[in-house]
Amino acid sequence: MGIGNIFKAFQPKDKVFFVLFEKTADTLVQMSKEFHEGLIDFDTNDESLLKKMSDFEHQLDDLTHEVFVQLGENFITPFDREDINHLAAGLDDIADYIFASSKYIFLYKTPEVKEFTELSLLIHKSCVELQSAIKNLNGFKNAAEVKESCIKINSYENIADDVLSQALVRLFETNDPINIIKVKDVLEYMEIVTDKAEDVANTIENILIKYA
């Protein structure tokens, strides 16, 4: 390897990783928006929403894979390799659970429940704040904005907990065992998405503490 190539190999790869993370966050925002809007006009006989979620999930799998490929190819990274791994895996988990939520809605032919759209809106808002946090994390120059987004994500997760609890109380009052099983599963999958978003926010805050 020539001296020029050696020097290039040891250059910081901020652009590579941040481009991938920002693209991942952008895709999550699109995915969560489509998910929320699809539940507003919900039709158990129309599987176009499920197909869209599957396509988004595959796109995000590819982006996550590319992050891991870059980790294997580059000596120097913008922050710890372990943190990059956690951030990539956490973002991928969000996509996986959005897709799982949509899948079970259609597999179970779940009846429309107002809490679905309440939770999907919180999921979308969380993804928007993750998009903002990751954008502002680039260069570690906007720490206050990153922290503000992380606080909002934590708040959305707390609200989602309350929505789930109240929904389960009403659900068990129906005394319909089959419907309870179906709706409970979907509600819990959707609430987990906000948990995963909070996990990513915590990872981002840890990165900020180390480098900002």
From TrEMBL:
This is DUF47 family protein. Pfam families: PhoU_div. Belongs to the UPF0111 family. It comes from the Bacteria. InterPro entries: PhoU-like_sf, Put_Phosphate_transp_reg, UPF0111_domain. The lineage of its organism: Bacteria, Pseudomonadati, Bacteroidota, Flavobacteriia, Flavobacteriales.
